[in-house]
Design goal:
single chain, about 240 residues, alpha+beta, three-stranded antiparallel beta sheet
């Protein structure tokens, strides 16, 4: 990774490939998601929790595949869903700091850095393109989401609302398999919360996010269907 602060002089000719595919780093099983995008995420993907990469705690993620290095939403035509999670949509851009201020950085080692192709980042006279304005909005939403994630997770843990789960999968080749290592909201414990706690969760803005996670689990069946469709089309067998 080679992050550098974006500026309209050094990067006046910078272009970003926005095509979706494995060649550009999209073939991943999970991607982080944030409470402020749960409503959009749950329309397409299961939202589950996995151990945080950078310390104790958990990170909500969208489950994109059933095996490591697999994204079942990628096909020959690109991304097969109308919403791409913010952490993937941001492409090579990231939030940095210039002193006390947040700044936009770009990973110059990203495969999305175009060589004369892709979306221009700056107009010829140096102003931001619509594409860069969109990326600025995405990064702002990620910053807001990152700040919200820790208190959201802490609230779930305080009320003992998270439980691990395992998903048994019968693949189209007849093999029996299991998805494990993730957690979800315990609907049983959620239903037992007293009115005062429910009112507290609502006042904090977490109640809708919790129900978005619960609603998203219906897409676990969709993931299995997507996997079996790919299995049948490519003549593959389940491998770990």
């Amino acid at each position: 990774m080679n992050p550098v602060q974006l500026d309209n002089n050094t990067h006046r000719d910078l272009r970003i490939v926005t095509t979706r595919g494995a060649a550009w780093g999209d073939d991943v099983m999970t991607t982080p998601v944030f409470p402020n995008e749960f409503r959009d995420v749950q329309a397409h993907y299961p939202i589950v929790f996995q151990p945080a990469d950078n310390g104790p705690g958990m990170q909500p993620v969208a489950l994109l595949g059933l095996r490591s290095g697999e994204n079942l939403f990628l096909d020959a035509h690109g991304w097969d869903a109308s919403y791409i999670p913010l952490a993937l949509e941001r492409g090579p851009f990231m939030i940095g700091r210039g002193g006390a201020e947040l700044t936009v950085h770009v990973d110059m080692d990203s495969p999305r850095i175009g060589r004369g192709e892709g979306e221009p980042v700056f107009m010829p006279h140096g102003t931001s393109t619509e594409y860069l304005e969109r990326m600025n909005s995405v990064l702002a939403a990620i910053h807001t989401g990152v700040e919200a994630t820790a208190p959201f997770i802490a609230t779930l843990l305080r009320h003992d609302l998270v439980e691990s789960f395992a998903l048994d999968i019968e693949a189209a080749d007849g093999s029996q398999n299991r998805l494990a290592g993730f957690s979800t909201i315990s609907e049983e414990r959620l239903a037992r919360l007293d009115a005062a706690v429910v009112a507290e969760l609502h006042a904090q803005g977490w109640l809708v996010a919790i129900f978005m996670v619960v609603a998203s689990t219906t897409h676990l069946r969709d993931l299995i269907a997507r996997y079996n469709k790919r299995l049948a089309r490519q003549g593959l067998a389940w491998t770990t």
